[in-house]
Amino acid sequence: MRQQRGSWRALALAGMLAAAAAQAQTQTQPQANDDSTVAPAVKAKQASEIRRGDPARWHQGDPTQQARLRTLQKEIGAAYAEAKKACGESPAAERSACLKEARSIYEQDMKNAPSQLETAPQGSVQTTVQTTTPASR
Prior knowledge:
By secondary structure, this protein is an all-alpha fold. The protein has a domain at 1-26 and 63-121. The chain is built from four helices and no strands. It has helices at residues 8-28, 40-52, 65-88, 92-119. The protein is flat, with a radius of gyration of 18 Å. The model is unreliable at 1-8 (pLDDT under 50).
């Protein structure tokens, strides 16, 4: 079983922003909900990867506290990059606020990363996900 690591709060924000951006995209451009838009070469590569299974490194925990912290920080950074990308795809009027919120969450997650590792059992980091509603326009 793959050990769960990372900042769920940052990942949840990135997921919500990506979903909102995807919804906005689908409203402007109708797309098929099947594999008809996937290139044949990509389909073949994906099938090959699925047959091989998960890489062994995915099932190995980080051996030290410092390695766990680096992994957590890398995951927080990846979630922030996804959030920024989603913000970039949002309407211009909302972009600044979106980027500001994403940056705030990134900074808070990075600040809390060491304490998350101290209180979490080996290989497990969990955070509380807070849902927010957009401000009235």
